[in-house]
Specification:
- This protein is an alpha/beta fold.
- Helix content is about 50%, strand content about 10%.
- The strands form 2 sheets. Strands 2, 3, 4, 6 and 7 form a 5-stranded parallel β-sheet that branches. A two-stranded parallel sheet has the order 1-5.
- Helix 4 runs parallel beside helix 10 and helix 6 packs across helix 7.
């Protein structure tokens, strides 16, 4: 009967890889992580007590468009034009060295109602740094933001890599550390329609969508992606709005209660 155990194991694997992501809106990688199931049992799978935001409220048909690695003098203005035309507000996670070079783009992002977050100062892997070094990366971004007259309200680590050291440093700034539930980037323009279809289908209530405002193909595909998400019934929120939706729920995360 040993073969029966192998069949059961295979069925469980297929369930996790193909059905649970569709049912839960979580990525396969996260579902295969023991840490996710521990967080779920604690009620911390949306936002942990340390302030790691994995996802918005799954009861609300809202998604968050987020853009990393900018601002870029060529692509960011195009994306801002599209967002304004579509009436969508997003969150831009900026790199300090680029914020230093293009403060006027950060001012435009804020002036048009979008949220700004820190994406490190120089896009190093933050997990290779000490807590103090990560803290200084954020501090340098905050100094540049103040000079530009804007506010950074969240943090996302480069490559989505974070550990206890990174989390402690971000906690000292009392900002949420924002992960993502849907990743991917538009490819060649001739494949835009297929990419939009696949990307939009992966979105669920509370999904945090990760894109980059440094890729021209992303700007090309953005209008169609926004329309596809709206056709699926989604509205759009910035990361701070998504966090506030969680805080208004019946069981707000510990991180939010500790900073009220």
């Amino acid at each position: 009967m040993r073969w029966a155990y192998w069949v059961d194991a295979l069925l469980c694997l297929l369930l996790v890889c193909y059905f649970l992501p569709e049912l839960t809106g979580e990525s396969r990688e996260r579902l295969l992580s023991a840490e996710y199931w521990i967080q779920r049992m604690r009620g911390e799978h949306l936002m942990t007590r340390e302030g790691v935001l994995w996802r918005g409220d799954p009861r609300v048909p809202v998604v968050a468009l987020t853009f990393d690695d900018g601002p870029d003098p060529e692509t960011t203005p195009r994306i801002l034009d599209i967002l304004r035309q579509e009436g969508v507000r997003a969150t831009f996670f900026v790199v300090g060295t680029k914020l230093k070079r293009y403060p006027e783009l950060a001012r435009r992002i804020a002036a048009e109602g979008h949220a700004l977050g820190c994406h490190s100062y120089d896009h190093q892997r933050q997990t290779n740094l000490t807590e103090e070094q990560v803290w200084r990366q954020i501090r340098d971004c905050q100094v540049l933001a103040r000079r530009a007259g804007v506010q950074l309200v969240a943090y996302r680590p480069p490559y989505l890599e974070q550990n206890a050291t990174v989390r402690r440093a971000v906690q000292r700034w009392q900002m949420p550390l924002v992960m993502a539930t849907v990743l991917g980037e538009a490819e060649h323009p001739t494949r835009t329609h297929a990419w939009v279809y696949r990307y939009a289908r992966r979105a669920h209530n509370g999904s945090i969508l990760l894109l980059h405002d440094t890729y021209p193909h992303t700007a090309d595909a953005l209008p169609e992606l926004i329309r596809a998400l709206r056709q699926r019934g989604f509205e759009f929120a910035t990361v701070p709005e998504m966090v506030r939706q969680l805080s208004d729920g019946p069981h707000p995360p510990t991180f939010l209660r500790s900073h009220e």
